[in-house]
Structure prediction request, 983 residues.
Amino acid sequence: MQQTEFHPGEQLHGFNVLRKEVIEELNLTLIQLQHDATGARWVHLQNSDSNNLFAVGFRTPPADSTGIAHILEHTALCGSRHYPVRDPFFSMLKRSLNTFMNAMTSSDWTLYPFSSQNLKDFKNLRNIYLDAAFFPLLREQDFLQEGHRLEFSNVNDPSSPLEFKGVVYNEMKGAMASPSSLLYRRMGAALYPTTCYRFNSGGEPSDIPDLTWQSLRDFHARYYHPSNAWFYSYGDIPLAEHLETAADKVMQHFSRLEIDSVIPSEHKTGEPTRRTEYFPIDPGEETARKSIVQTAWLTCDIEESFDRLALNLLSTLLLGNPAAPLHNALINSKLGGNLAPGSGFQDENRTTYFAAGLQATDPEKSEEIERLILDTLETVSRNGFEQERIAGAIHRLEFSQREVTGDRYPYALGLLMKMMGPWLHADDPVSVLKLDQNLNRLRDETLDKSFFPELIKRYLIDNRHRVTLTLAPDPALQERLDRETATRLNRIADTLTVEEKEQIIASAAELKESQEQEEDLSCLPSLEISDIPEKEEETDWEERASLNTPVEWFDQPTNGIGYFNAYLPIDSIPPELVPYLPLYCSLATQVGAAGYSYTEMAERIEAHTGGISLSSEILNDPDQPDRFQALVSIRGKALNSKQEQLFAILSDVINAADFNDIDRIRTVLLQIQTSFENSIPGSGHLFAARAGAAKLSPASALREQWTGISLLHLIRRLTALDDDSLKAEAEKFGLIATHLINRARMTCAITAEEKTFDTTTPHLESFLAKLPSVANGAAKTTAAQTVTTGRFGWATSVPVSYVTRTFRTIPFSHSDAAHLLVLAKLLRAGYLHREIREKGGAYGGMASCNIESGLFSLLSYRDPHLARTLATFSDAAKWAANGSFSEESIKETQISVFADLDRPLSPGSRGSHQFANNRQGMTLEKRQTLRQRVLATSRDDLIRVARTYLVDNRQMVDSIISNEELLQKAKSGLKEEMIIKRI
Prediction:
């Protein structure tokens, strides 16, 4: 699009241009502006990317832990002046081609970002986001739904017990069950005793019920104003067009306000402190090696951009890989199983901090861990770092700065997250994006060997503002919390008058009526089917062999980085070794190799690459549901100037990984175990669905064995072994490599700029030449179909549930696959969101159709219910099979399917994605046929597939993750048997 030239001092639509910076390393131009009348700030990142992103944020310092900023973030999206419907945000999710839509609350800001590749869609969303942020309705019913409310457990019976309900209330009950989340919140309270960071901005479940609707409205009036706003835009849409829209929709309605939202630097205390906090686990659960110990220091103010960069680099030098001295000392001490969550330098808050510690430890080791950290820092401050290590850490920083990412969330959002803190607190959005000046200074100053020792002394050793926090498990805590909540509710109930009880019942009825009411959504903008691209954007490649090995070459704008991918089939590996394959993949890059120790390998990887990895993967056949390829994927990436080193390191890892260091293997397995266990509270629905799917197809069974609860059980068994037994088990990793590595079975891909292909080829061929090559035929893995139906519960320490139901359906190329994709979107938007989230109070109610694996799932996330949700799943299927949806909703869900199908990939991932498609047989013709079938999906198609694959389909499994008490309670009340096991 045509961009207008802007220069400092110019004014457009009431905005003054303050700064214009060309950031060559990111291929973009930064323009910083301020609105003359209101003081609103704006940063525009101008480039040729069609995946445009817009965001508006506000500084929102909390004054307590009621979650006011978080609940306001939810409630603001529940209807606004020009879009007075109950839930425009979720309504737009189903009628948009967005590539990202969300809102988020940090410790000191609230942000509303979205992105889209479609100009019409982008303009629609921008209007809705601006209206939601500045002119929300903030109705009391929406506050009661999203925040908290009182209801009787039997909603119409005033003699039944009272309950707290609400989406955010249940979300935070789940979030605060996670030890890593608790550690972050409790450390914040300890490190920042006088500023807003001592409060839980998300909301403490015990404090959320104290928030009033009027307080929420007052908070919005105080902080959601252009004078306290930070606007951000990115991409190829002209800045002038953004400014004109903002001036028209928002700015003309406001004048400048003096808003006191500035967050002061935390006052540093004079003496170190120690604290012990607790997290709940199930009664009877083992408490050993479940604690976390972390020591943290307040460091520099966020305004100090050079010190911020230096501390970031110091963090990498101390903790960034197994060779880093503090990382090495902590892990090899055997005092814990892995680094504590959040270890390293953190620069999101006004005053930054550095933390280090261990998880999978015990409370009585707290002082020993703290002393180890302090002693290690003393040693490093005496010895400093070798220049080679400093150069490696700088390389890592430069690589991360250069790489264009954007697969999990848009690249533009990642840039905003980097600059949000410095921009918010220091009016400095540039320094984190344009590193050259500070980086050159850092290179010069680190030539002085005293630079890092002095930095360590100033910010760590001699810094008395230090906290050591122990987070320990308490089997009685959840019961105590539940009892306190029950006592509080009973106290409230005892004071209620008859009229107040009637009001609670009436309020619940009014909310339910509102939730069930069919709304007129005509005020919301929508796309038409004609706005959907007829064809997907093709990825071109050329294939040419190197040493008789097929290599696909992808020309992509990778900003000076080359990506390598390879696949090796596993069908030559003996079946008894297959469960160990994901552990082999994890260990291979974390042990020694080719005569190098594991620390030396870690230093080589950091100094010369952007990372290397091996992973076990499954590619389903698009035509046959029980036919699939099981593979090991090898990946590596490096700057173009480092390709020779990349392939040399890959060669050593693939050909000569050393699995004889049992001490190292045990250490890595413990790290994998703790990371795995920490991930369950945040991804419980995924683990539950994976466990259910394993009963329905051989490919899904193998996928669960490699990535699910079964793998965790295997890891726990291995880490419990003595050294001799573990040594015997570790021999399997070497056997896997012997059976797996074979150039004759390998296929490769290179993704880079075409001009680098010729210089990369010799390094690739050198790598290939060192691989063993044994001719044998390639074959897809085919397993006999084994389907087990039933209901399974998985018990762990969580206060909420993750409920899933998974159906076996049909493969990708089946004509009904496209209709099931549309049905999944229809069920989520038209039924599950309302019944599970709005009415049920869960954080999420979803439907998912994985047409590659031939599975269809219904899911809930952080759900206060279990049996009710299972009944809702049955009702949802009947709702669709009865055709209880409108023609307009079909069009909307068709559009939202394409938002997924056409989601943009980073340049590096475009190559790897197409490489997988080619290997899988997922041809462009098959994908185009799917698109056409999605567009052709009719009402009758949806009714038919809902009945065939959901209502009448007995090949289904219910799988639930919850705590033992909730599972046993549900089991006693359900007609069907539930098999309960512990995770």
